[in-house]
Design brief:
This protein is α/β, with parallel strands linked by helices. It folds into two domains: 19-245, 3-Layer(aba) Sandwich (Aspartate Aminotransferase, domain 2); 251-366, Aspartate Aminotransferase, domain 1, CATH 3.90.1150.10. The protein has twelve helices and ten strands. The strands form two sheets. It has a seven-stranded mixed sheet, sandwiched between helices. A three-stranded antiparallel sheet has the order 8-9-10. Strand 4, helix 6 and strand 5 (165-169) form a beta-alpha-beta unit.
C-alpha cells in the first residue's frame, strides 16, 4: 500500500491532447481559414463520431456544448402558442444541466425518482409520473448516470406506446452510446472520457431532425439567411473539432487507461460496502468514478483529511437546488438514498495504481 502522498489527489484531473498532437489539425485551420460554421474539421469529426456510434453520418450533429445541444433538441417540444409550459419528465438524480436545458427550452422540469439499482428512471416510473401529472408531459429525458448505458429498446417501446418523445441524456456516455430510434446527446467536455475541451454531439432519429437541429444552433438558418425557427448560436468551432479529432486519434489508449484504473478500483475496493455500478470498467468505461457507500459523507471527510478529494457530483438531487425547488416532483425515496450514499472518487488517466490501492485501503479501514 502507498503511504500518504505529499500533494492532494484531485477527484478529477483532465488530460487533453498536447500542443504537438493538436498541431497538424490547427495547421489545417490556419490554411483553410474556416473557424466555425460546420467547417472541414467539424465535418471530419462528425464522420468519425458516426462511425463510433454506428450511426448514419447524416444523423449526427455536433454542438458547442451538451447543455446547448439538449436545449436545442427540447425546443421542438415547447409550446409556441403560449399557455402552460409542457412538462419535461426527468430524474431528480441528474446533473443540473438537464433541468436547465428544459427551462431554457420553455419546458417545465418535472422530477421523478430512479431505480435504486440502475440509478435510472424506468418506463414504469415514467408511466406512473405521466399518469399523475395535471399538465401534459411532452418529453421524457432519460439520463445515463455517470456514463452508464441506457436500455434504449424499452424506451423505444415506451415512446411508441405513449406517443411521448424520449431523449437520452448520455452526457458522460461516449463509450457506451450507440445509435437508436431515440435522440441522444453526448458531451465532449474536458472532463469526459473523449474530450474536445468543450463540445457535444447529437445522434438524431432522422436526417430531418438533424437538419432542424442545425437550424436550432445556427440562428434558425440552414441553406439561407432566413431564420425559419427559434434558435441559438450553438455551433462547435473548428478549434474544438481539432481537439476532438486529436482525442479520437488516442481513443484506444485513453479507453485502456480508464479501464486499467477502474479495474484497479474493482480489485481493491471492499466489495461488501463500496459498490461500483454494474459493468463499470468491465463492460463500459467513463471518466467519473462513483461508488455506493454507506456513510458516504463521513468517508469523504476522512479521505479529505488524508489529502484525497472526493465529490458529491449530483449533491442532493436537482429538486433541491434553488432554481428548481418550485418544480413539480413525485416522491423521491431512491434519490434521497443515493444522495446520502454515493461518492465520487479520484479518477484520471495518470492516476497511479498505488494511489488507487491506498484510497481503497482507507475506505476498507473505515468499515
Amino acid at each position: 500500500m502507498n503511504s500518504q502522498p505529499s500533494s492532494i489527489i484531485p477527484v478529477c484531473r483532465p488530460l487533453l491532447p498536447t500542443t504537438a498532437e493538436l498541431a497538424p489539425y490547427l495547421a489545417r485551420v490556419d490554411a483553410q481559414r474556416w473557424y466555425s460554421n460546420f467547417g472541414p474539421l467539424n465535418t471530419e469529426l462528425t464522420q468519425r463520431l458516426a462511425t463510433h456510434a454506428g450511426a448514419q453520418v447524416e444523423h449526427v450533429v455536433t454542438a458547442a456544448n451538451a447543455t446547448a445541444a439538449l436545449t436545442c433538441v427540447m425546443l421542438d417540444y415547447a409550446n409556441p402558442e403560449g399557455g402552460p409550459r409542457p412538462r419535461a419528465l426527468m430524474p431528480a438524480w441528474t446533473f443540473v444541466a438537464t433541468p436547465q436545458a428544459a427551462t431554457l427550452a420553455g419546458l417545465e422540469p418535472y422530477f421523478a425518482d430512479v431505480d435504486p439499482v440502475s440509478w435510472q428512471i424506468t418506463p414504469a416510473i415514467a408511466r406512473s409520473a405521466v399518469a399523475t401529472s395535471d399538465i401534459p408531459v411532452a418529453v421524457v429525458v432519460v439520463v445515463g448516470p455517470f456514463g452508464a448505458p441506457v436500455e434504449t429498446a424499452d424506451w423505444e417501446d415506451f415512446a411508441a406506446e405513449t406517443g411521448i418523445a424520449v431523449i437520452i441524456d448520455a452526457a458522460a456516455g461516449f463509450d457506451s452510446v450507440a445509435a437508436s430510434k431515440l435522440t441522444t446527446v453526448v458531451s465532449l467536455h474536458a472532463t469526459k472520457a473523449l474530450p474536445a475541451g468543450e463540445g457535444a454531439f447529437v445522434l438524431c432519429r432522422s436526417e430531418a431532425e438533424a437538419i432542424r437541429l442545425k437550424r436550432r444552433q445556427n440562428f434558425g438558418f440552414h441553406g439561407s439567411r432566413t431564420a425559419e425557427i427559434a434558435a441559438l448560436n450553438a455551433k462547435m468551432s473548428e478549434y474544438h473539432a481539432a481537439v476532438g479529432l486529436a482525442a479520437l486519434d488516442q481513443w484506444t489508449a485513453r479507453r485502456a487507461g480508464y479501464a486499467r484504473a477502474l479495474a484497479t478500483y474493482r480489485r481493491h475496493l471492499p466489495g461488501n460496502r463500496a459498490l461500483m455500478p454494474d459493468g463499470l470498467g468491465t463492460g463500459w468505461i467513463t471518466a467519473t468514478m462513483v461508488i455506493a457507500l454507506e456513510r458516504a459523507r463521513e468517508a469523504a471527510a476522512m479521505l479529505f483529511s488524508h489529502g484525497i478529494e472526493t465529490r458529491a457530483w449530483w449533491a442532493d438531487g436537482c429538486h433541491l437546488h434553488p432554481a428548481f425547488t418550485a418544480c413539480p416532483r413525485t416522491s423521491l425515496p431512491a434519490t434521497r438514498i443515493l444522495a446520502d450514499t454515493t461518492l465520487g472518487l479520484p479518477l484520471s488517466l495518470d492516476l497511479p495504481d498505488t494511489d488507487i490501492e491506498w484510497i481503497c485501503g482507507l475506505i476498507a479501514g473505515a468499515a
